């Protein structure tokens, strides 16, 4: 694992030239009907249409997919129908291949939602990429990249993702007439960044705790005003799945067996009682790549990217502490820097569905009650998509989230509860989140919850049906030790909750140096003013 990402490019939000198309088939979902479901999408007709516009699609291949590792490693559990269906080798399959296609029951149980991933290229013989109709008169409305755009610069210089996405979404009626049942298209969103960094949840690197007189465990206490039934609840018979970063079980158990780990009671508990489901990553998220996707800010609020492979078990430790009777499983969907994409999230959600249906070969069965924890942000916020350089309108933005909504709605209809982070964008260190008052003073702007947490609320757009809020999606914000809203936390909304998350640390010196210093062991340890208001939890990696 690389220790830190230096000289990072600018912010990006999706994988270059990858598109995700959501379909709704009338075919019933079962292991035996996968071929019929895919055939009902009439993907060749879709590709023929795109070819007339100068584009062509190819399905994902093995190298683009999340995979269960070799079965001889006992720390890496569960099996994968998707792995077997993906085919062999890295040759690009045709559009009708099952590779990169994730199938979900529609909420009414009368059909199948298909979330399909494709590479998109200019059609053979196409010299230039045609522009499409859009918001900006006299220029390409979906152009990205280039210096000074506020995006990833050269990374998007040859990107046609948003062109093709909006082209498809503008012709949904025509597709319906030729029996191509498209709901919408979207980019392969990044939960992190590719060859760059994007906004994500972690607002500061982890800070080491002074080991002098360390107790083996810091207990979470519920507020006194919480009703008695919750005070006594321990999560018994509940399963909680933490979709996050994850180190291999062998690495974590080795730390637990060390002298330092032996004194950490919570770590010992996690090693004995938490299930590790470690997925191998596709090439674009590979931890061995120095240009892998990364997220994370330093203590001055600058985007730097730092190792956070323990974030998942940190979250699991909190859950284990307050709900010791719950069965907890950590599932790796992000790389060691917290970078991920829509492919990994859909892969994990489909596996959850298959295990919940006790499908043969899907892995250990799951039963209700089932909670899925998502400490991640799934799409860019409206503030990004509706401003330069994208300048999308409300209807276009609505369509760009339909695929993620379909998958989550499918699982909630089957009884799954989602607990999702509201986001950490509302902070004084970020000038874009400040409001200047008439007297010249500034106050932080409290942003609304990010997606998928925001799926808890109704959403409408011109020309679109109202997308009903999902009652079993619970947005979560943060409060500090005084019980007030943490300065960085987005507002979880009226149906959300807030729980202890600590407050931003005060660095010493308060003014940031001109160049971000390297973290230890390559640089001087950052000084943090006392007292520190932060959650204490498990950390097993050798680096801070």
Q: Would you kindly provide a written description of the structure presented here, covering whatever features stand out?
A:
21% of the residues lie in helices and 17% in strands. The protein is an alpha/beta fold. It has one domain. Helix 9 crosses helix 10 (311-322) and helix 11 packs parallel to helix 14. The protein starts with 13 loop residues before the first strand and ends in a 16-residue tail after the last strand. The relative contact order is 0.14.
Kindly list the characteristics that best describe this protein.
7-stranded parallel β-sheet, 17 strands, 6-stranded antiparallel β-sheet, 14 helices, 544 residues, alpha/beta
Helix and strand layout, with pairings?
Blueprint: E1 14-25, H1 34-39, H2 43-52, E2 55-59, H3 81-85, E3 101-105, E4 112-122, H4 161-169, H5 172-177, E5 182-191, H6 228-232, E6 239-244, H7 249-257, H8 259-262, H9 265-273, E7 274-277, H10 311-322, E8 327-332, E9 340-341, H11 342-356, E10 370-374, H12 382-385, H13 394-399, H14 402-413, E11 416-421, E12 434-436, E13 442-444, E14 473-479, E15 497-500, E16 507-508, E17 527-528
Parallel strand pairs: 6-8, 6-10, 7-8, 10-11, 11-14, 14-15
Antiparallel strand pairs: 1-4, 1-5, 2-4, 3-4, 5-9, 12-13, 16-17
